[in-house]
Automatic annotation (TrEMBL):
<protein>
    <submittedName>
        <fullName>Damage-inducible protein CinA</fullName>
    </submittedName>
</protein>
<dbReference type="InterPro" id="IPR008136">
    <property type="entry name" value="CinA_C"/>
</dbReference>
<dbReference type="Pfam" id="PF02464">
    <property type="entry name" value="CinA"/>
</dbReference>
<feature type="domain" description="CinA C-terminal">
    <location>
        <begin position="9"/>
        <end position="159"/>
    </location>
</feature>
<dbReference type="InterPro" id="IPR036653">
    <property type="entry name" value="CinA-like_C"/>
</dbReference>
Length: 162
């Protein structure tokens, strides 16, 4: 199945879970530019579980909209475990959501370094007060990396409810 079709199916599956459990979800996205929230809201009836999401591409927006401390951004950078933790917690709090997905990474083709290569993405999943962080390195061009990140993020939340 093509990745876009897989994302659509995953988003519909997650939507059914959220509706059934009467849970709400938000996103705090950097490298995906709103792709996860687009996928979630592409499902009819998504207004039952999505109220607001955050696209925070710059450090300033991460600070202003999500409350990520400037000291965390300065010390660890946008693409870090510490930053996505703060993003997820800030998004959940500001959206008053049960679940938050935060992503920050290097989608490429430029911007990578030895410490933070192209394809590196940090994820934070906030579910009813519990926080889990994951780090992945994806391959492919910018579009492929972003699509893989979207699918991975949605799939993780689905698996939390299986």
């Amino acid at each position: 199945m093509e990745l876009q079709q897989e994302i659509t199916a995953l988003a519909a599956q997650l939507g059914a879970i959220l509706t059934d459990k009467r849970l709400t979800i938000t996103t705090a996205e950097s490298c995906t530019g709103g792709g996860i929230s687009f996928a979630l809201t592409d499902t009819p009836g998504s207004s039952a579980y999505v109220d607001r999401c955050f696209v925070t591409y710059s450090n300033q927006s991460k600070h202003e909209l999500l409350g990520v401390p400037l000291s965390v951004l300065a010390q660890y950078g946008a693409v870090s475990e510490q930053t996505v933790r703060e993003m997820a917690q800030g998004a959940a709090h500001n959206a008053k959501a049960d679940i938050a997905i935060a992503v920050s990474g290097v989608a490429g083709p430029g911007g990578g370094s030895a410490e933070k290569p192209v394809g590196l993405v940090w994820f934070a999943f906030y579910i009813s007060g519990e926080l889990e962080v994951k780090k992945c390195i994806f391959s492919g061009d910018r579009a492929q990396v972003r699509m893989q990140v979207i699918a991975f993020a949605i799939d993780i939340i689905i698996n939390k409810f299986k």
